[in-house]
Amino acid sequence: MKRRVISALISLPLLATSALAGPAVEVLGTDYTFANRIEGMPEKLSDFTGLQINDFTTNDGVRLSYWEAGSGEPIVFVPAFGANGAELINQLWLLSQTHHVYVLDPRNQGLSEETPKGARIARYSMDLNEFLDHAGLEKTVLAGWSMGVAVIWGYIDLFGTDRISKAVFVDQPVSIYTHADWSEEERLDAGGMTTSPERMIAAFQGAPTNQQVVDMKVVHRSQMLDSPYAQNAAGLTEAVIDVDPASTMRVLFDHVTNDWRDVIRNKLDIPVAVFSGEESNNLPSQAWIAETVPDGRLYSYTSEEEGDHFLMQKNPVKFVADLRSFLAQ
């Protein structure tokens, strides 16, 4: 059953298709009219004439799809847990006016293949490396949202930063799992939000919970769809992406239990932009990242600016303007 939400924590998109490549409308087999008409944005998917959907096969035989548009300096987006190129349609459109933008659908997400193989962040990071090879990107900006940031941290841990010009991190805790011997300061710096990965995963699947088991603010904020941009992206996702929660959930335990503090302290030798906001309980950890890396900048959005885990979705115009400013520095 499809659900109209922008959160990858709530909507778990997956579509099994044959390998196709070309203009988005042709690959999807349908056009789509956005519910909200917004000045400067396409009214229909077919108005986005340069949008392509292509794919490649990983070294373990999994077909991964990716969305791309524009020309110029490349930017590769790795979306959140369960998310995909359809959910980033606004970012694709806005950034494609000045950059060559890619969104990689991770395995078991979006238009990529459903598979029981590789449900680990390390494998997702290898997939990202293979995508850079496939696309011929010797130097690029890497941008991650939520779990997509962890995939980039895993990539940097494995392969370093030689191919990355700058990095963009949108509201990903450094360690979702809170260790029992941490002080409260350590928990806040790491962004810990649960002491039980199993109970956290169950809560995201609808099991009863409370704020001491897991921080549920991210789920609550995902359901606040007052932004017409977010509504348009959610509508497109609902129309063209099917949902298979069991497949997408496979990676979540591994994602929750990783601690990336050593990577942030020792391996981020490139300029880094970190995005968060007043309505995200991750904000202290995002400030810690920006303060810890040698060249970091924190972009903190107010409540009025939709400063939550979905700020990129709800306020894409400001996000893209801030991103362009960072890239121009």
From TrEMBL:
Query: Which residues fall in a coiled-coil region?
Result: none
Drop me one GO molecular function for this one: hydrolase activity
Provide this UniProt record's keywords sorted from A to Z: Hydrolase, Signal
Q: Which domain of life does this protein belong to?
A: Bacteria
Does the keyword field hold Hydrolase? yes
Give the residue range of the signal peptide. 1-21
Pfam families assigned: Abhydrolase_1
Q: Does the record carry Nuclease as a key word?
A: no
Record's SUPFAM superfamilies?
A: alpha/beta-Hydrolases
Residue intervals of the AB hydrolase-1 domain = 74-223
UniProt-listed Gene3D superfamilies: alpha/beta hydrolase
Name assigned to this protein: Alpha/beta fold hydrolase
